[in-house]
Amino acid sequence: MAGQSAATLRRPRADAVRNRERVLESAKAVFSAGGPDASLEAVARRAGVGIGTLYRHFPTREALFEAVYRREVQQLSELAEALKTEADPVEALRRWLRSNVEFVATKKGMSAALALAVHGTSELTVFSFDRLTKAVGALLDRAVAAGLIRSDISPEDLLRALVGMCYLHDQPGWQNSVLRLLDVFVDGLCVQTGGGGATTLDSRHGSAAASEKPRRQRSRKSQE
Predict the structure, then answer these.
(1) Which stretch of DSSP H or E encloses residue 198?
(2) pTM of the model
(3) Is residue 43 within 8 Å of residue 97, measured between CB atoms?
(4) How many CB atoms lie within 10 A of CB 145?
C-alpha cells in the first residue's frame, strides 16, 4: 500500500514535468513564428493544455519568457559540447551558429508577443552571454587550433556579428536570408589557400593578428 501511495504521488509530478516541457516547446514554436497569433493562448492550445495549466507553471508572461530563454541557452550549450566531437571543426562551428538563428527568432518573437524588452533582465542577459560565449569559444578554439579559421576573431565578435545579422532583418523569411549570410560569413573566416600551399590570413595581417590571439585568451580567462 505504501509503495502504491508513493507511486500515486509521483504521477502528478511526472505529468507536471511533461506539461511544462510541452508548454516550453510550444512557446518556442509559437513565438518563433511570430505574428498576431503569437499569444499565450496560442501556446496553451499548441501544448494541449488549458490556459490555467500554463499559468500554474508560469504565473506571469515574464516567467514564461525567462524559462524559454534559459532552456534555449542550455540547449545551445549542450549542442556545443556535442559538436566538439564532430570531425570537421568548421562545420561544427557553422552548425552551432545556424542553431543560434532559431534562438534569436524565438527571442524576437517573445519580445514582440509579450511586449518585453529585447534583452530581458540584466541578470538574464549576463547569464546567456556568458554561457553562449563559452560555448562558441570552445568550438572556435578548436577550429583555430586546426588551422582552419583565422585567429584574430573572438567569441564575442562572432556573437555580435550573428545578432547584428538577425536584428537587421524583420521581413517574412528573414531567417533564410540570415542563414545565407551566415554561410558567407563563416566561409570568410576560413583560412585561405593559395597555389603554393596553405597561407593563413594571420600572415597577411602580420603582428596585429599575432597580438590579437593572446588578448582574446586573456579576455576569456578574465571572464571565468
Answers:
(1) strand 197-198
(2) 0.72
(3) no
(4) 11
Per-residue pLDDT of the chain (224 residues; tens, 9 = 90+): 455 444 444 455 778 888 899 999 998 888 877 766 778 899 999 999 999 999 999 998 888 888 998 999 999 999 999 999 999 999 999 999 999 998 888 887 777 665 554 445 577 778 888 999 999 999 999 999 999 999 999 999 999 999 889 888 777 788 899 999 999 999 999 997 654 334 344 433 333 333 344 444 444 444 44
| 14/123 Cα distance (integer angstroms) | 30
Which single residue is written with the C-alpha cell 549576463? 126
3-state secondary structure string, 9-60?
HHHHHHHHHHHHHHHHHHHHHHHHHCCCCCCHHHHHHHHCCCHHHHHHHCCC
- 109-132: buried (b, 16+ CB within 10 Å) or exposed (e) per residue? bbbbbbebeeebeeebeebbbebb
DSSP secondary structure letters along 107-169: HHHHHHHTT--TT--HHHHHHHHHHHHHHHHHHHHHHHHTT-B-SS--HHHHHHHHHHHHHT-
Taking each helix axis as running N to C, give the angle between helix 89-113 and helix 155-167, from 0 to 180 degrees, rounded to the nearest 10: 50
